[in-house]
Specification:
4 domains, 20 helices, 16 strands, alpha+beta, Beta Polymerase, domain 2, 8-stranded mixed beta sheet
Length: 451
Amino acid sequence: MNHTNPYWGDEMEAALPVLHTLEHAGYEAVFVGGCVRDVIAGRSITDIDIATAALPDVVMSLFERTVPTGLQHGTVTVIVDERTYEVTTYRSEADYEDYRRPTDVAFIAELEGDLLRRDFTINAMALRSNGTLVDPYGGLTDLRRGRIRCVGQAEERFREDALRMVRAVRFASTFGYAIAPSAWRALLRNRELLRYVAMERIGAELDKMIGGAGPHRAAALLAASGLLARAKEPLPAGFAKPDCGYRQRPALRSGRGAGGADGVPPLTAALARLQSKDDRWAGVFLALRLSPEDAEETLQRLRFPGRRIASARSVVMLHAAAAPLAAASGAAAVPLAAAAWVDAVLAAGVETASAWLRITRAFAASDGQIGGLTLSSGALEQLAAQLAQMPCTAVRELAVNGSLLCAHLGMKPGPRTGSLLQQLLRSVALGETPNGRAALLALAEILEEER
């Protein structure tokens, strides 16, 4: 069924020369997939995908600049005016192996056959160069109703590619849609197949969910689906099987915002207040009360880069020391508490302390607690003020260095030098000693005499 589409994006306008070149050579060409879905929904477009009846070698012959991105699947990257467009030949797929990859890919001449192989109806629409929408599977209706429905039989789509089950959760959570009952039932029946999917692919989908518009909705849907407990490698139970109190089938809930507008505690809309994906991941771990070891294991199993793993682990470690200071207004101003905060900041670093403050402030503003810990906005503001006023937070910021200390005290470089620098740093950070060379060298002399 074709519709006249009233929407058109500037990005598509810029890509029209690609379609026109293919059409003038006698080959059908259309915009397809996510860009069509998003332009109809009024969302910004990140990538433009084009499908065509032209074979890959023909596509490469029609354009001056191309890259053979994935010829076995019919994909050629076309470069026009320094913009890149993936142009893929219409194809059909059959005989999937390991519930993930097709073993038989055949190039075809019909657009409808190409759309049939796609996962969900909202992703199986195409736009011609004249603005006509090609929608053989009812994607426009599902888009308007806020529904994630599979193309054809959901059972077949999930058994072809088990990652589609996780993608269903991602689209539903990001767009605030419901998963159609037929898709939800098929997901529950086939969730054991997730063990065939590589962990890095699951990690990439989860990262998009956490960074999307509804990370709290994703948490609720994942908890209800039980998908993560079926992953190829076991994930910590506190992460894979959290007790989110979410038992009602999301497919039967309101179409917009499955999981509720605020999600289900402990993973609520507070997550969406955070701008950084790394902050959101750390917030998930804090809300679920995961240990630093479980947080680290979770991200390692999902194949995250070491830098991001270390960042999350550091925030979770800091939480154990800093959490008591955030519980009651005025507590952070007590001298012992102020010293404890300084020690925590020096041990974790300013970047980690700042991330922890962003996370706990977001949860304090939204829920008043995180992971069962009551949060005081007043206490957090005091801790933030103390952090901002700390005159020195790293050894490299001191007015003296190891060489100067050794020369002044007549000592050889070694562990004692590092220990002295840390003591000087703490004194400066607490405001007990000014960060000046004379004052620091004098304090170093006293510390050495007291040994």
